[in-house]
């Protein structure tokens, strides 16, 4: 393949056809992106084109049957996107999962850079690109959750001391840093890449902490999220489970990308990542075994013995038990590692879902007043909230996978980030 | 000027007149629950004796409002008189304020695609010099009294000086300005409507809280003409 060298980086010459239709990976990405598109249309339709009748219409056309019907639909129908029975939780699950796991990967790779772990450094560019893709997929999810069409007001009328503004500078620094690191690796600036690893490491940790802070602390007064900040140990749950998932994603990635090209290196790398995964799984298991002693008893009761128990045990089985059994052996087969990775990825995602949905269905704060918790308005939600994300929301979450694949594939096509490089 | 409302909630008969008047005034879907204004009913029983307590409610126009702090675009802001407003133009619908509000007072207005809430009729009445809200004007049992906390001689402060009252979710620290007047002659009703964490105040006790929060926030009050 013809190559250019730009600023010390070899760039592949890619035809437009190759870019848009080159291989089957892009079709998989398109498949997912179609979901994203359908989801966005659904959400935007609800948001901008749903005309509902109001008291004014009733005043203008008293006695009009159509207006009466429209008002009935507006009040009692299924229109509108934010409903008590169907809060937007899957968005938050996906956003937090993607951002946490993506920055977890970046963290682990930066750590490998700092400690000169050659095995990981060989594939660092690919890993980082994958992490970047996940972070962008998370941001995509939350961007749809925000109101894109009005988003210009963020710039035209900014209030900088509000929490959301914490995130903007964070990502504005973090994402370019990752890109710069990828650049340094590709342009063989090994020493500089190692130097940059420390700030990236710190930023990754900041993302993990601040994300928790912004999502929970700023909205501390929300009954559902109240739980997150009341029990400081939960921060660790978020972080440990994210690192477990990051290691699992890295293991799966290694298998998918290198199994045919660099068999021996692939095997060695999988062994190394396996160890990281195993330690994280053990840490996660220990957390789950002890944390409930310190965390709110009511919450523990709901999770361990209440409505969420089946999901919780499924999460434990998938994220901890199965991978532990599969990875504990000195020599576990490639297949075992792959199964363990997939199991962890699904399990930890389930863990996030339980967390966010559980918080929504069972607000932990019995606060006096007009809050919905007091009047049992959550009773109805308990039954359905877990199963019923809106269709548009689910489609966007599925579509975010397309973002990861698309971002990764495009960068890989130009820069061959998936190649193993001797550091 | 520091606008607030006292609610003699024991007189509430849940007739929904305030709700209809408010929704009519502001173009909100009639009947839509918890949009701008609502009445919550708590039905319980103590030792087999059933009771119902009605709490008419709406945005508390918190003196130290968290919804204003989380808004990234300044769409949520304090207007003169400490009335908390939301600007439909600059709202990006991030719903941060909906999450931050401990009273669940905000909702998404489908017709304007923005967050909306009670405005104490600021734009429809107060700026025109009226001193009443649609809900107060229509309440058949005189539950509501809208007024100015800075006017010591005014009806509102006079009432608060004579009656004990409480506010909702005081421990959230938002210093709300809906004052629920404690039922005077029916101790059962009074006890059923509060819990052990509720602080019952006299005006002299509550005034310093208001003053303190006002000092903290009044520099943010904006004139919207
Ligand atoms: S009641 Fe809610 S919306 Fe109203 S000022 Fe207080 S926090 Fe804001
Ligand atoms: S939803 Fe609108 S008013 Fe509320 S915080 Fe976001 S931008 Fe501000």
Automatic annotation (TrEMBL), chain B:
CDD domains, per this entry?
PsrB
Gene Ontology MF annotations: 4 iron, 4 sulfur cluster binding; metal ion binding
Q: Where is the 4Fe-4S ferredoxin-type domain?
A: 3-33, 50-81, 82-111
The source's domain of life comes to Bacteria
Query: What keywords does the record list, in alphabetical order?
Result: 4Fe-4S, Iron, Iron-sulfur, Metal-binding
Q: Does the keyword Metal-binding apply?
A: yes
Q: Which InterPro entries match?
A: 4Fe4S_Fe-S-bd, 4Fe4S_Fe_S_CS, ET_IronSulfur_Cluster-Binding
- PROSITE patterns cross-referenced by the UniProt entry: 4FE4S_FER_1 (PS00198), 4FE4S_FER_2 (PS51379)
Known PANTHER family for this protein? PROTEIN NRFC (PTHR43177), PROTEIN NRFC HOMOLOG (PTHR43177:SF3)
This one is known as 4Fe-4S dicluster domain-containing protein
Its lineage reads:
Bacteria, Pseudomonadati, Campylobacterota, Epsilonproteobacteria, Campylobacterales
């Amino acid at each position: 393949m013809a190559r250019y060298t730009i600023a010390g980086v070899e760039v592949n010459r890619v035809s437009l056809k190759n870019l848009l239709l080159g291989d089957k990976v892009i079709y998989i990405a398109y498949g997912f992106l179609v979901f994203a598109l359908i989801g966005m249309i659904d959400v935007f339709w609800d948001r901008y084109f749903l005309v509902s009748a109001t008291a004014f219409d009733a005043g203008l056309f008293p006695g009009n049957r159509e207006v009466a019907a429209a008002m009935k639909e507006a009040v009692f129908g299924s229109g509108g996107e934010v409903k008590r029975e169907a809060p937007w939780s899957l968005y938050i699950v996906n956003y937090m999962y993607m951002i946490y796991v993506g920055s977890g990967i970046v963290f682990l790779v930066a750590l490998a850079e700092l400690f000169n772990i050659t095995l990981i450094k060989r594939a660092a560019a690919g890993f980082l690109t994958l992490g970047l893709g996940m972070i962008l997929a998370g941001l995509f999810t939350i961007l749809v959750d925000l109101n894109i069409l009005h988003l210009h007001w963020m710039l035209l009328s900014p209030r900088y001391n509000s929490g959301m503004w914490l995130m903007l500078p964070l990502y504005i620094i973090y994402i370019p840093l990752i890109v710069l690191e990828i650049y340094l690796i590709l342009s063989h600036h090994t020493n500089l890449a190692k130097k940059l690893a420390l700030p990236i490491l710190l930023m990754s940790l900041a993302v993990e902490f601040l994300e928790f802070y912004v999502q929970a602390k700023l909205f501390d007064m929300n009954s559902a999220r109240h739980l997150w900040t009341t029990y400081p140990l939960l921060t660790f749950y978020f972080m440990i489970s994210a690192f477990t998932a990051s290691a699992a994603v890295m293991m799966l990635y290694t298998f998918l990308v290198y199994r045919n090209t660099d068999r021996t290196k692939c095997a060695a790398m999988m062994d190394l990542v396996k160890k990281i995964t195993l330690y994280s799984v053990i840490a996660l298991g220990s957390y789950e075994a002890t944390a409930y002693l310190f965390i709110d008893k009511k919450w523990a009761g709901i999770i361990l013995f209440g409505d969420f128990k089946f999901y919780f045990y499924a999460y434990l089985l998938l994220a901890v038990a199965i991978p532990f059994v599969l990875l504990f052996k000195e020599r576990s087969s490639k297949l075992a590692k792959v199964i363990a990775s997939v199991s962890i990825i699904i399990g930890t995602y389930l863990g996030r879902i339980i967390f966010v949905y559980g918080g929504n269905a069972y607000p932990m704060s019995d606060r006096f007043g007009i809050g919905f918790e007091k009047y049992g308005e959550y009773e109805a939600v308990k039954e359905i909230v877990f199963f019923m994300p809106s269709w548009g929301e689910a489609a966007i979450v599925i579509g975010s996978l397309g973002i990861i694949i698309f971002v990764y594939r495009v960068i890989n096509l130009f820069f061959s980030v998936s190649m193993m490089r001797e550091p | 000027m520091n606008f607030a409302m006292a609610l003699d909630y024991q007189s509430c008969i849940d007739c929904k007149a305030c709700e209809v008047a408010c929704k009519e005034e502001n173009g909100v879907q009639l009947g839509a629950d918890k949009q701008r204004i609502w009445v919550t009913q708590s039905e319980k029983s103590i030792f087999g004796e059933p009771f119902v307590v009605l709490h008419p409610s709406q945005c508390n126009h918190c003196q130290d409002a968290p919804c204003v702090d989380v808004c990234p675009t300044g769409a949520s802001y304090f207007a003169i008189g400490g009335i908390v407003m939301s600007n439909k133009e600059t709202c990006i619908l991030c719903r941060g304020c909906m999450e931050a509000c401990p009273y669940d007072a905000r909702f998404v207005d489908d017709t304007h695609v923005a967050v909306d809430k009670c405005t104490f009729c600021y734009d429809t009445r107060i700026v025109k010099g009226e001193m009443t809200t649609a809900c107060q004007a229509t309440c058949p049992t005189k539950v509501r009294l809208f007024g100015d906390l800075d006017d010591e001689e005014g009806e509102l402060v006079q009432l608060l000086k004579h009656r004990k009252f409480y506010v909702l979710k005081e421990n959230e620290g938002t210093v709300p300005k809906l004052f629920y007047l404690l039922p005077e002659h029916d101790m059962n009703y009074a006890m059923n409507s509060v819990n052990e964490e509720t602080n019952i105040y006299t005006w002299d006790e509550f005034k310093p809280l208001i003053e303190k929060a006002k000092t903290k926030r009044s520099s943010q009050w904006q004139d919207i003409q």
